[in-house]
């Protein structure tokens, strides 16, 4: 009985740690982080922002409680969210500035499931854009300031409450310091070696248990999501050559972009404001970038950049891939110079926003596994509140579980279970018509706004575009009732 009492105490202590850590993440307004402690939480870099901000998760008192809980959990032998930094054994494969590339690892002894995560942060494609990037976001080009540990959140968390189905996996966070959308193979003058970094990470993880893996999920957000699609076939091939029998899967978060409507500029190589297509087209030469063979064969030389767009690349992949995409991705909108919560919004831009949702939905029509809420946001899987977002009453975590069951059933020649969906795309037509969407915030006042309030604040004439500014509540209720 005494032994059982100790076991119960340790389990309770671990649960308290997860809950205190979770409360810290949700507590109040998030203060901005500063200094080298920024690595304490896993934060996301947006696709196109030159200098993305990162915020902490919780007040000072709650953060202290989380640290005390973590220390107690370690004393009790419980696993924590801490991932420890490992530099690559092959020191010839580096970050942009020649510093050592590496990865963060949280091992789960006995688990044969591995979750590898590729960080996002767009790219640079010329001397000018790379110098600008190095001056403004050095952590995306150098490992010199990386902390020794990181704290996993969302699908990278080891707390079952926050991460029901992947908390006990071996979790690997691969920092993005190659600026090449994980495609490069060039060693100098700037080193663009994103694809090679992934290869070396797999090599270093093989003796740590990855050779015995049953499932390897290669995941990523934004540019990291594109990196998943560009590298998943090579990862599967590499693991097979190492003798592993793992099924390799992909999880792409906010990396499913459509081509820009902007007019392409002939002098783009010297401009920071290139379209994504031009940035990649030019960057591929600078990075000596590689794309999957089956996709590359579809396009003539110089057109390989098209393989960076998921709706063109997806059909050429043999590994299963799950697509997570907000229907109104904020980074897609920024490509068209639309900044929600910014200063202005024209009728033409509002029309583009409306059309975007339908275009993204159409592009996902034939995707096997997808989760696409009708919301304005960017990235989701590493957010602490990722479980709160739903499509038709089903969370992303639940959809991933259903996908996992279906793949296992197919692998074992069984019929997949019914009533467990994993293709969930909102049917309503408007941004924010899903009641679980992240809140909209005015950039200047930091106040939470409804969609119509934000449109008014951005100077859109609602009556001109057929919206009634006096019917805010009725309008929102009506669009929610059409789907979500």
TrEMBL record:
InterPro entries for this protein: PAE/NOTUM (IPR004963)
Region (Disordered): 27-63
KW Signal (keyword) present: yes
UniProt-listed GO biological process terms: motor neuron axon guidance; negative regulation of canonical Wnt signaling pathway
Lineage: superkingdom: Eukaryota
MF term (GO), any: palmitoleyl hydrolase activity
Keywords: Signal
Signal sequence residues: 1-18
Family, similarity comment: Belongs to the pectinacetylesterase family. Notum subfamily.
Full protein name: Notum pectinacetylesterase 2
Organism for this UniProt entry: Takifugu rubripes (Japanese pufferfish)
Species lineage: Eukaryota, Metazoa, Chordata, Craniata, Vertebrata
Gene: notum2
